């Protein structure tokens, strides 16, 4: 196995993890911890950015030619460690088992639908920025 992708992913992962902690702290300080707003904002923004990268670089090209060093660094490394399914899962389970389980269902719906819409929007904008068509 070529170790170069691992170096790019590791470097990006360090940055993405730090960015996630910082943004989550800012959002939680602003909106409170009754609902996992920080994780939701991180996952939505990460989905949007991943779609944007795929749109700009061309998702079809990435699938045919394989990932580049930039893709390993930004998409897999930074955004892979920036977004978090494990935190989402634990927070959702905690909400479902708490006094207001509807918050857990809201988190599931907002996260899944929101991230699908965000990655779609990012892909569209990325393709337009790159001069392509929808």
TrEMBL record:
Write out the coiled-coil annotation as residue ranges: none
Q: What residue intervals traverse the membrane?
A: 6-28, 40-59, 71-96, 108-130
One example of the protein's molecular function in GO is: metal ion binding
One Gene Ontology BP term is: cellular detoxification of fluoride
Q: Where do the annotations place Na(+) binding? A: 80, 83
Tell me how this protein sits in the membrane. Answer: Multi-pass membrane protein
The UniProt record lists the keyword Membrane: yes
Q: Quote the catalytic activity from the record.
A: fluoride(in) = fluoride(out)
**Compartment(s):** Cell membrane
- Would the keyword Membrane be found if you checked this record's keyword annotation? yes
The function of this protein is: Fluoride-specific ion channel. Important for reducing fluoride concentration in the cell, thus reducing its toxicity.
Protein name as it appears in the record: Fluoride-specific ion channel FluC
Q: Which organism is it from?
A: Franzmannia pantelleriensis
Gene that encodes it: fluC
């Amino acid at each position: 196995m070529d170790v170069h992708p691992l170096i790019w992913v590791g470097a990006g992962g360090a940055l993405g993890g730090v960015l996630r902690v910082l943004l989550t702290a800012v959002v939680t300080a602003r909106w409170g911890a009754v609902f996992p707003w920080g994780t939701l904002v991180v996952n939505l923004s990460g989905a949007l950015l991943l779609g944007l990268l795929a749109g700009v670089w061309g998702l079809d090209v990435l699938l045919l030619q394989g990932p580049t060093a930039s893709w390993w660094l930004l998409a897999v490394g930074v955004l892979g460690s920036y977004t978090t399914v494990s935190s989402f899962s634990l927070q959702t389970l905690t909400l479902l088992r708490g006094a207001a389980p509807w918050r857990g269902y809201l988190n599931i719906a907002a996260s899944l639908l929101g991230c699908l819409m965000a990655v779609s929007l990012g892909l569209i904008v990325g393709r337009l920025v790159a001069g392509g068509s929808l």
